[in-house]
Amino acid sequence: MSLTASLFALEQLDSDIERREVAMRDARRRIGRNPELETAEARLETLRAQTQTALAEQRALEAEIADLEGRIRRDHSRLYSGQVVDARELASLERELEHYRSHKDGLEDSCLTVMERAEQLQAEVDALSARANELRQRWETDRAGHTRELQWMTDELAGLRGEREREVAALDPRSLDIYERLRKNLGHAVSEVTGGVCAMCHVTIPAKDIQHARSGVALVQCPNCGRILHAGHPTL
Ligand SMILES: [Zn+2]
Question: Is the dihedral angle over the CA atoms 65, 70, 72, 73 positive or is it negative?
């Protein structure tokens, strides 16, 4: 293989390695985290706390109502027991009873509102809980797939790196240095000459440079972008 053909092959190999490294990072990220599930679980936690608060509020109201019912029963029996005969005392008892009843009505309305809210929250918890379970199960399955994929990519990457080492060993250090530098600075080190122009920067390459590049013995760089020119066989 000519020098430029070897560098062209090396660049394809390097791009392959980079693509796999990106895919592996992505697979690792997917194995480690699931943002959709995290969001669902955080929301679920908030909803559960809100449900508990509503239920506690409901219990407190129910206790208060039960207490008032006790007072109402007590006042009611006193009122009709015949023990209280004083007109002012009777009137005061009636006012108190009226006050307890009106307070109880207000509390019952509040209790109903809180109960409805607790039920609604519980329904949301149930629905989101089912969704989170679904997401978790799917993630478990996906994770197993990603783990297998990662193992497969790791093996493949080791193979590609071995291949790269062999390619690099066959190259002279100076050419390799130029290649590495260009790749680092420009992203791509080798550019194909197609239709007489550099495929990367689209500048026309002088015919003698194309001929030199085609011989593949020495490095010919694009006069514009500086990339190593790789010229295949002349177009027929
Ligand atoms: Zn160029």
Answer: positive
